Amino acid sequence: MKYQDLLVVAAIVALPFIVRPVIATEIWIFAIFGLGLNLLLGYTGLLSFGQSTFFGSAAYVAGWLLKHYGINVFLALGIGIGVGALSALLVGYLCVQRSGLYFIMLTFALNQLFYFVAYQWTSVTGGEDGMQGVPRPALLGLDFTSPLVYYAFVSILFVASLFIMRRIVESPLGKILQSIRENEVRAEAVGYHVPRFKLLAFVIGGAFSGLAGVLYAMLFGIVPLEAISFVFSGNVVFATLIGGSGSLYGPIIGSFVFIWLSESMSVVWARWPLLLGVAFVIVVLFFRGGVVEAWNRFWAWKAFSKPTN
Amino acid sequence: MEGILETHQLSKSFGALAAVQDVSLRIEAGSLHSVIGPNGAGKTTLFNLLTGTFPPSSGKIFLDQKDITGTPAHRIAHLGLARSFQRTNVFPAFSLLDNVWVAAFATGRSWGGLLFKPANKYPEATERARRALSDVGLEHKAHQLAREISHGEQRQLELAIALAAAPRVLLLDEPAAGLSPEETRRMVALVRSLKGRYTIVLIEHKIDIIMSVSDRISVMHFGSLIAEGSPEEIQRNPEVRRAYLGGIAA
Question: Could you report the predicted ipTM of this complex, rounded to two decimals?
Fold first, then answer.
């Protein structure tokens, strides 16, 4: 077990004492969302500006089934993961045909397409009012209406997600995706069908987003229209960059910073996004590797400036 | 004797420009066959056709008498054809070992566990990767990053990535491009050491290298083949002297 894992466990235990359990839960949900994005952004070098497509689709489908058919939580999560992966397969298939700016615009445009479907289809999604009344049914005798019980449940799923993502990035697939990030032409020449591997990254990322989407819907009892909008897509990119896209743990830290800032500051100061803007500018100008890089540099600097007698 | 790699009247046009025109080549198994010609003669385009970067406008390519025309680039390595690039084309943030490892894994025996088995638990690929590094003399730098080594070493790594695929035919596009005289000598020795173990097709500008290592030489000029023969024959060929050696040996 690495020390980072101990930190994660410590954070899971400590967090509900520091912030309200709902916010603590949201942090881990958003971290799952970020893990999925980072497989694309950090490992494959693909900037997807449409991750909320998968997050929102899963939340709507699973939310609908929870609300009207009373399916159990496991089934809802499974369906959410499936919808996330499937929508990512569809969107990804179209997006990986292009690269660079065109790729980014495609992810964004398709996100808008999904958004307007959700916006118009009010009988199902509730349109601007959101899909309200998503229940959080009990599971195996556990009362999920208790915020702490639900927090524990989400934490376990987060740890499982982190474990799975680590297996993926340390597998040959992880190496291949990174080789695509480093040099697409050479990756193709040594024998990898680059678009297919990009698509695979999309599908895996979509599955993680789907899981996060369902957990989110159950957390707040609502699927807001925002959950499928470019705002959410931007937020997860933002959070991941602030945390550090170069590392497995970056999106987790990013999620923590982002959710904590937005939840605690928005109450005090309506212009709080200014702070995020400043944080973002600092990261882009000085710490391209986000908080993770700042942290590493701090320790390198400490070790360097320590007197050596 | 039949060639391991053959082209029949291969042509490629970009708009009005005929980059490669009716090129028929036959590469004998185990030989070192060089393709020379002035800048813009179509040598690299020929390589790009052989490795599926783009399909030919007309003509055919045969590997082991099997028609492989139009095979996409990512399939080519799996057929036993590997190339190095004229401009260094490595994975900069990877260690040298990882650079060759991804190539070794691509053409490895099994992709089982692709999504969950730790990458360091593929002994066959790792072994092949290490051998490729030691073939080019870089095994002592296996854990350094590719962007941190010298240009000369990057050229060696470029070659190692091609070797890691365990190809039967090796296509080398100006392996000595941009090297100092000393580094060039080392590269020539390296190419010579690979002779016999692989069938090699070599593009090179430096005429002294070509003459000393090649079994056969084909000369391209404005997209067409104008001569083919042993190094001695090529040196005597008046047309070649006029087209290519003109400035140097006339």
Answer: 0.89
